[in-house]
Q: What sequence folds into this?
């Protein structure tokens, strides 16, 4: 199984389209918000350059986690999973390899967007905050990896990617990653506060205020993870 | 002798269509078995069930005395599938290395690549290869784990003559070392040249199974062909030794168990011309036993 894991990790770092989607796009958006448009929402408590850096880092990492499922869907439709079925690799070995390599592939995107904030956005934080941000954002997007796997075993080929684009967009807007929650109407904001992307983002936003994750936040995120993981296991069993 | 593969009363239906109908097959270790039959005869269905890719509707499957999935996960089986996809964004050597690493006792990667003839493009991306080259990569993946049982579904489709020959050379080397090989093919000469035994499938049933020579003799030893005006089936059928008569216009084909006696009678009673004799080839046997036509 280790030999296959190695191959998948190598593929994750060699995929130019994926790396651009996961790094250049959130970084570009970050610069657009903070340098070009300069839209600081009303009632912004912390430095908007820092706040938006966390939002966009979470946004990029979330995409990386979700699109693990896109790769699964594509490889299922192209017959690679059929080829793997006649090797000694057990089916769960494939999913594990996909999750680990996908998670590894998320890391460069986190580092690049945070570096963009520090170097281009002029964000200054206490030293401890940087590794805390990397670790928390990384962990925070893991529920989306489970959601991606559920999609990957439900739809095949490009259909999965299109569906996930939609889910990606809706969840990140609802989670306040594009525009902060203050900009939303009352009813939407209540809904948004329970959404998984908002909770993932909150892990990092709280670091900016010098706070560790809240109990409710971690609880909500754990609940989403359990729900998505359950969904993924169900779809995976159905697809075998 | 221990069995490599055993199917007992295996059936499979798709809705109203019967894909396999009570197939019994036992392949001993060290045997080379060719599975033949017209399209839709159930070859791929049978191999898929033998590999655990499909569950049988009824019946039992064993590979080295275990379930197919157990045998696969133990690394005892190497497989070349007709329609499997390959990762396209990796190099050939990377792919072979990754798959070889899944097996407990793989052959050295260089050795597997040489045997499958992929060495010359080992560092190229799989997606850049021609379909024939990709087929050779599939063969390399099947060999990589040095499996006890090799299952090949139409392995030479899309291969040129040279690659075809080297593939069979490698298969032969393996069977000489006591390994078991099961292959499905459309090319009857491949069965004739490389199989110890032929299994003929038609309509989801095994209609014949045995050494190539036995399959041929099932149909009758010799064909006598000649030209005759106004030939009549009934008159020709009573000639000594004749088992089957076919008339196409003036061309007549007799299938006979005793060609000497048939010829004596034929010359005595009929005014025939252009008489030729030919021994049955495997193609005739397959057509007559399956009622289908092979390419």
A:
């Amino acid at each position: 199984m280790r030999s296959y894991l190695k191959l998948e990790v190598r593929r994750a770092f060699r995929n130019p389209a994926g790396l651009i989607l996961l790094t250049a796009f959130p970084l570009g958006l970050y610069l657009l918000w903070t340098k070009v448009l300069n839209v600081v929402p009303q009632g912004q408590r912390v430095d908007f350059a820092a706040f938006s850096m966390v939002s966009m880092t979470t946004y990029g990492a979330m995409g990386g986690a979700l699109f693990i499922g896109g790769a699964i869907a594509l490889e299922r439709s192209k017959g690679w999973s059929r080829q793997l079925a006649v090797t000694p690799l057990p089916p769960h070995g494939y999913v594990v390899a996909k999750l680990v390599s996908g998670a590894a592939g998320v890391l460069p995107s986190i580092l690049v967007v945070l570096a963009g904030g520090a170097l281009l956005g002029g964000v200054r934080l206490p030293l401890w905050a940087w590794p805390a941000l990397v670790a928390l954002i990384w962990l925070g997007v893991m529920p989306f990896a489970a959601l991606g796997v559920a999609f990957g075993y439900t739809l095949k080929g490009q259909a999965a990617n299109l569906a996930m684009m939609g889910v990606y967009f809706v969840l990140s807007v609802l989670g306040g990653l594009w525009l902060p929650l203050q900009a939303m109407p009352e009813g939407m904001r209540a809904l948004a506060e329970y959404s998984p992307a908002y909770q993932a983002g909150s892990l990092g936003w709280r670091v900016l205020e010098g706070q560790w994750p809240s109990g409710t936040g971690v609880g909500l995120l754990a609940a989403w993870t359990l729900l998505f993981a359950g969904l993924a296991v169900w779809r995976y069993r159905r697809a075998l | 002798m221990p069995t490599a593969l055993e199917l007992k009363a295996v059936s499979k239906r798709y809705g109203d269509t019967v894909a396999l109908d009570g197939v019994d097959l036992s392949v001993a270790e060290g045997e080379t078995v060719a599975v033949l039959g017209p399209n839709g005869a159930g070859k791929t269905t049978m191999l898929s069930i033998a590999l655990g890719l499909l569950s049988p509707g009824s019946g039992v499957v064993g590979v080295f005395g275990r379930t197919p999935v157990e045998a696969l996960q133990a690394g005892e089986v190497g497989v070349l599938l007709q329609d499997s996809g390959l990762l396209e964004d990796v190099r050939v050597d990377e792919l072979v290395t990754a798959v070889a690493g899944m097996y407990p006792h793989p052959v050295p990667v260089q050795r597997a690549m040489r045997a499958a003839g992929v060495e010359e493009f080992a560092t190229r991306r799989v997606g850049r290869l021609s379909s024939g080259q990709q087929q050779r990569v599939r063969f390399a993946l099947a060999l990589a784990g040095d499996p006890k049982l090799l299952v090949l579904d139409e392995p030479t489709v899309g291969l040129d003559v040279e690659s075809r020959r080297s593939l069979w050379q490698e298969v032969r080397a393996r069977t000489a070392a006591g390994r078991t090989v099961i292959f499905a093919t459309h090319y009857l000469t491949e069965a004739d040249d490389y199989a110890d035994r032929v299994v003929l499938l038609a309509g989801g049933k095994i209609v014949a199974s045995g050494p190539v020579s036995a399959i041929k003799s099932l149909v009758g030893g010799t064909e006598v062909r000649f030209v005759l005006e106004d030939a009549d089936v009934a008159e020709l059928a009573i000639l000594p030794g004749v088992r089957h008569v076919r008339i196409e216009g003036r061309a007549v084909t007799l299938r006979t168990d005793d060609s000497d006696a048939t010829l004596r009678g034929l010359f005595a009673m009929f005014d025939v011309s252009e008489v030729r004799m030919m021994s049955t080839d495997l193609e005739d046997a397959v057509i007559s036993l399956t009622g289908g036509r092979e390419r």
Observations:
- The mean pLDDT of chain B is 90.
- The longest strand of chain B covers residues 3-14.
- Chain B has two domains: 3-211, 221-279.
- The two ends of chain B are 35 Å apart (CA to CA).
